[in-house]
Amino acid sequence: MPTNAERAQTLTHALPYIQKYSGKIVVIKYGGNAMIDEELKQAVMRDVVLLSLVGVKVVLVHGGGPEISDLLKKIGKKSEFLDGLRVTDAETMDVVQMVLAGKVNKSLVNLLGLAGGRAIGLSGMDGQMLIAKRHSEAHGFVGDVVAVNPQPILDVLECGYIPVISTLGVDGEGGIYNINADTAAAEIAGTLGAESMISMTDIAGLLRDPKDPSTLMPVVDINEVPALRRDGVISGGMIPKVECCVEAIRQGVSKVFIVDGRVPHAIIIEMLTDEGIGTMFV
Q1: 225-276 confidence digits (pLDDT tens)
Q2: Contact 274, 13 (CB under 8 A)
Q3: In angstroms, rounded to a whole number, what is the distance separating the alpha carbons of residues 73 and 64?
Q4: CB of 169 closer than 8 Å to CB of 176
Q5: Pick from 85, 107, 115: which is nearest to 164 by CA?
């Protein structure tokens, strides 16, 4: 057990980082196993509340892939993926909307409240926050973000709440689209001029050899990404994740991280300590 002096030292070491982020917007993309494991989920919610209480304007953007797959399985429908994105027909879109804007979104809002935070759940459909267009015919109702209306997010932040955003988009004809959470987080972070974006995932970061955690790449220049894709270092579900990190940097987000959501308090380690974990994109 740490002594009181050690606890105090930990807090004083965090002070410069708290000062750097206080009053700034940080977008956290939350998904994967960190959303399934109840203990990890509660740790993430406590971290978000802590950041909020020290003055960081946290915007929590969440996915819900495992929950969507689980419900599809229960209704006898197989999940299909193409280039790391879920193929979404009309029936699947109904399930996506129910799970993301309903079950997952409201359970996270509730957990933040239980941890002592104040949160409001939003979807990209609210206030036409995420304007989308169809990604491709082959993907069905998967959308690309055309524009972000940040006002609903800014209004919620202004009132002292943590916005919790599910990634559904709309078009001008009333069509609803399933938007990859990493894509949505990058677009939201860019539009808000966020200080940083943190993408929580199920691996340690970008690995040169996906089977070997010791090959973690702590820093990646976005100019290296095309070569890393050609070499197969970036493949499958990592393709949209990395593309979104690149897009966020191009849109002016200062720092973008992929961190391991399976590590307790990964957000705090990344933001408020010298150590840091995961891969930083520059």
Answers
A1: 999 999 888 887 788 789 889 999 999 998 899 998 888 888 988 888 877 7
A2: yes
A3: 14
A4: yes
A5: 107
Q: Tell me the one-letter amino acid at 144.
A: D
160-216 confidence digits (pLDDT tens): 999 999 999 999 898 999 999 989 999 999 999 999 999 998 888 898 887 888 889
CA distance 22 to 24: 5
Strands 168-170 and 176-178: antiparallel
pTM comes to 0.92
CA dist 190 to 108, 217, 222, 252, 254, Å? Answer: 24, 24, 16, 6, 10
Strand partners, 259: 200
Backbone dihedral angles phi then psi of residue 194, each to the nearest 5 degrees: -65, 150
DSSP string, 139-176: TBSBEEEEEE--HHHHHHHHTTPEEEEE-EEE-TTS-E
